[in-house]
Amino acid sequence: MSKGKAVENRTEELLAPIAEENGVEIYDVEYLKEGSDWYLRAYIDKPEGVNIQDCENVSRALSDKLDEVDFIDDAYILEVSSPGLGRTLKKDKHLEKSLGEEVELRLYKPRDKQKEFTGILKSFDADSVIIETEEEEKVFARSEIALIRLAFDF
Known about the structure:
Blueprint: H1 3-21, E1 25-34, E2 37-45, H2 52-69, E3 76-81, H3 92-98, E4 102-111, E5 114-124, E6 128-132, E7 137-141, E8 145-150
Helix pairs in contact: 1-2
Subcellular location: Cytoplasm
Keywords: Cytoplasm, Ribosome biogenesis
Domain Ribosome maturation factor RimP C-terminal: 89-154
């Protein structure tokens, strides 16, 4: 397991009781290096959407817990936020909640000279994702998908 994955998993374990106490769910945890800085990002959510107070409360409690347990060797910046409008659908639980929603899907390699597709998320399994575009239903292997996120219209 990569260092990043190990930090993400351990952080998620520490965050679980904090999220529950604050009435939010963990959407995702990321530990990644951007430039010379390491970022530990926790994305939280709840049905009516999270507000700044939720983020502050969770951030303060998580920061204290991380200081107490002190398992991350690098200096890092902690950020707690909502996954936002164009949220990335990384996990099966994200896809499950988004069935019937409009999604944007980006491929690693072009298919029919196109890398980006938009459509309604119809179904998915361990190997594939099916979306309904304006023309037809399209099946994509999960291994060829670089990114799936909720589409948002303004």
